[in-house]
Amino acid sequence: MVQLSVPVLVAAGSAGGGVISAWLAVFAWQRRAVDAAGPFAALAAAVSVLSFCYAGGLIADSTTTASILLTAGNVAGSQVAPLWVVFAIVYTRFEQYQRPSIYALLWVGPLAYVLLLVTAPVHSLADTAVQFQTVAGITAPVPATDIATEAYTAFSYLLLVGGYLQLVRFLIESRNVYRQQTVAIIIGSVVPLTANALFVMGFSPHPGLNPTPLAFVITGGIVGWALFEYDLLSIAPLASDLVVDELPDPVIVLDESDVVVDHNTAAEAAFEANELTGRDISAVVPEFTERQGTDRLISATAPAQSDSTALYNPQTTEITDQHSQYRGRLIVFRNVTAQQRRLDRIEALQAATEALIDARIDDEIAEVAVSFVDRILDQEIAVVFVATDDGAQLRPAAVSESIDAASDGQPPNLTANDGTLWARYQQSDADGVVSADWEWEPLTAVDLDELLVLSLGDHGLFCIGSAETGYTVGDRQFARILADGTETALDRVAHEQDLRESRRVVRQHTEQLEFLNGVLRHNIRNGMQVIESNVSLLDAHIDTDPDSQQYLSRIRDRTGELSTLTARIRSITDTVTTDPGNRLWPVELRPALKEQIAEIERRHKDTYIELHHDGNPVVLANGLLEDVFEIILQNAVEHNDADRTRIEIDVKHVGDWIQVHIADNGPGVSDHLKESLFERNVSVSETAHGFGLYFVALILDLFGGDVWFEDNEPRGAIAVLEFQRAPDE
């Protein structure tokens, strides 16, 4: 049983330090994804091995065992100093030293010392021998003094001091929210360093009792507290000044009282202050506190552009610790100047488009385009040239104030003498920048470096200029969009003018048709009535001579035909001149067919007509429907060469259409004649009496239908008339 003594108590404390260090090593290794966790784990592991080996050496009962354990402890302890430097470099993100060559240089000394310890029996530079000495009643093993250990101890202190200097630099420059954890690391590591320094300087009750491993109990307690209180290994990588300082957007860190505790260089440039730390955010950025609860942007001086204003959209993130306690705020002021400018341009383009839609004449369109140049492109010079009616010149339909002033309110036309711009107008694609040689006089009188020339197609040119040179891709895109809108508006006005002219011509033709219709209805009808009256009077004075009666019968038949023709022409004219929405109405098909069948059978006794239909279909038509059936049936009878004319009529429902198939047993229609039978130049004698089949095609077209011929079997032709079904049919 081991008796309690000072060496045993020191060994127990050292073992406790080893246990704590081992736990820290495991804890850090489980979080090795964090940059500083790996070196920290290795450092804690080396300290743990050192502490356990020293504890074992103190309670060893032989010099051999004590020598082996203490030498192993020295080997593990030799790794502490370089691992400490690596941890400091990684933790503080001192990136210029995070290189394999630097790490290799750090281990030159430790590896040389370990090699000397291993080869100690063959030289005198290192001595691993141990002797038990009793001092002040305390017996403990004491390692021999050698040159290698003393030299490496001095080298280790240099490395340790270098690591501390790096941490102190980071402590001074680091962000406030990370300083407490940095202080915890420094204090925790200073305890064993101080204990070791006192031991090296001889401040120990026994030369074999080294308090350094025992001090790791205190270090472990401090570092363990920092791990849980400040989430040490998770937050440390976020404390990089380099990353934040290189951000182009301003970044400000506030504490619980909204006082600036840190910031990057972009914040100094944006808010025009060399030192923001320690000032309240309301004094640094007054608009930030005023905009609370709104989406309003913040304006400030644009970095590197003291004469311009930038727009920022603050994005705030609360800073809390692992206990969810509020520690402050991190504010990133996102620079949205370009996005807002683009949005403003888009809104201005939308407004310009609406104004262009409302414009009704060329000059009004040009004025709209020029008025929006400043809002969309920040340009103060603009002119819209519109081609004259003869296309020989381009007149300035609208100009900006500077050009108007330079020309005394009377800018001249652009002609072929103005070579450069006129050549651009004649090109198929005139878009481009002109930097000189604009011969048009008003442009030479204004402060102008570059002129952006945009084509308006056949309408003219859109010229935009400024005293400053350079047009970005975005500028050209927005300018082209505005020019396209202007060209489209000019096209619309031109089309509307053509439409108005077409309407005028149609109205004029309609009036002429109505006049001719009136002539037909009045003069010709009256003339036919006079002829018929005189024929009746003449009949009373002519004897019953057959030849004389034949002449009178011919006159009566012809005048009747002319009266019928006149009535049809009048009906067609009425239909053509009537509004399209009122020219058609639902008409029952069966009564119109039966009436014309009866009339044909009355005229031609040897004609047999058979009608097949289901129900009483209703089509869109008007009073000309009976004329259509009369002409088709008359045509089938007059051109029939059979002994007895036979006509079969079928009414069929085909979707939204009603088809009337009129099949005869005549000679049929040749394929060539099928293509031209309904044309106007086909003579009446080739078809039927009156207007013939052209009349049928004309009326079916007005009805929104169609007509064509098909072959009948075994002989004859089928006339197919297609009508629109009435909506409620």
Helix/strand layout:
Blueprint: H1 6-29, H2 37-58, H3 63-77, H4 80-91, H5 100-106, H6 108-118, E1 130-135, E2 138-143, H7 147-173, H8 176-200, H9 212-229, H10 232-235, H11 241-245, E3 251-254, E4 260-263, H12 265-270, H13 281-284, H14 286-290, E5 298-302, E6 305-320, E7 326-335, H15 337-358, H16 362-371, H17 373-377, E8 381-387, E9 394-399, H18 401-406, H19 419-426, E10 432-434, H20 441-444, E11 450-455, E12 460-466, H21 473-541, H22 546-577, E13 585-588, H23 589-603, E14 607-612, E15 618-621, H24 625-638, E16 645-654, E17 657-664, H25 671-676, H26 693-702, E18 706-711, E19 717-724
Parallel strand pairs: 14-16
Antiparallel strand pairs: 1-2, 3-4, 3-7, 5-6, 6-7, 8-9, 8-12, 10-11, 11-12, 13-15, 16-17, 17-19, 18-19
